[in-house]
Each structure stands twice: as structure tokens, then as C-alpha cells.
Amino acid sequence: MTCCSLRPTWTGLNILLMVVGFIIFWPLGLFMLAYMIWGRQWGLDLSDWGNVKNHASEAGDKVKRAFDGTSYSDRTQYSASTGNTAFDDWRAAELKRLEEERRKLEEARKEFEAYADELRRARDREEFERFKSRWEGRNRDSSGHHEGSAPETA
Q: Among residues 74, 8, 79, 64, which one has the least CA distance to residue 37?
């Protein structure tokens, strides 16, 4: 019976549905391919036909959480325990450490962007001041040249 179930694995039924989905309407085939590859991570399991409707909103929420901007540690709280508490504790500590590193990198990125923006503003300000002084100098020369070209005689 395992060859014909809709578990998120490479079963005969899933492969058949994927091929037929690509033939009939390509997004269906693409969905089946994604389901077979990432279904477990999304928390989807269509092998229980009777409860598909009951679990649909829960599964949709899990997929949404997988793709939204939540942190990795928020997503892993739904992952299954391995049964080994020492490993689970170590994994939780490592994930927390990695999340802290990710947060520090994000802060450094934001600080660098602010620094780069400040440098751009300073460069733009300097270029504008250079343009303005050249433009004003040209206007002074041209206006002074016209006035001085015809000396007044009294």
C-alpha cells in the first residue's frame, strides 16, 4: 500500500500524478513536485484522505510560515523531536546561537547601508557644491563681462 499513498515522498502514485499534472495543467505538476520535495518540511501529508479538509488550514498556515519573514527558530519550533533530549537540547542551543549571529549580521548590514547612504549624500553634496560654484562663477563672469565691455564715459 505504500507505493500508492500520497505521502510527501517519491511514490509511484505521486510520480504518476506529477506527470499527469504536467500534461494537463503544468502548475499541478509543479505543485506535486514541490509536495514531494518539501511536503514534510511544510507539514503537508495528503495520505490521510479523510482528514485532508480538517488539516487544510493548518497545513496552509505551516506553508505560509515557511515562506514568510519569521525567524528560523520560529519555524523550527514545529519540527518533530528526534526523541533524544540531549540532541534536541544541543540543536535548540545551536539554532539559538545561529539566530543570534543572523541578527548581528542583519544589524551590521543595516549599519553599513546607513554608512554608505551617508557617504553617497556627502559625495552628492560635494558634487552639487562644485557644480554650484562653477555655475555661479560662470554667471558672474558673463554678467561682469557684459557690464565691463562698454565703459561709460562722462
A: 8
Interatomic CA distance for residues 32 and 6, integer angstroms:
10
Give the pLDDT confidence of 68-103 residue by residue, as tens digits.
Answer: 655 555 555 546 788 889 999 999 999 999 999 999
Residue with cell 506535486: 32
DSSP string, 29-46: HHHHHHHHHHHHHHT--T
Rounded to an integer, what distance in angstroms lies between the CA atom of residue 136 and that of residue 47?
78
Domain ranges of the chain: 1-68, 84-147
Give DSSP secondary structure letters for 77-126: TTSPP-S-HHHHHHHHHHHHHHHHHHHHHHHHHHHHHHHHHHHHHHHHHH
Could you tell me which of 36, 44, 40, 78 has the C-alpha nearest to residue 60?
A: 44
> Which residues, 6 or more positions from 47, have their beta carbon under 8 angstroms from its beta carbon?
5, 6, 7
Cα four-point dihedral sign 46, 50, 56, 57? negative
Q: What is the spatial distance between Cα 29 and Cα 32, in angstroms, rounded to a whole number? A: 5
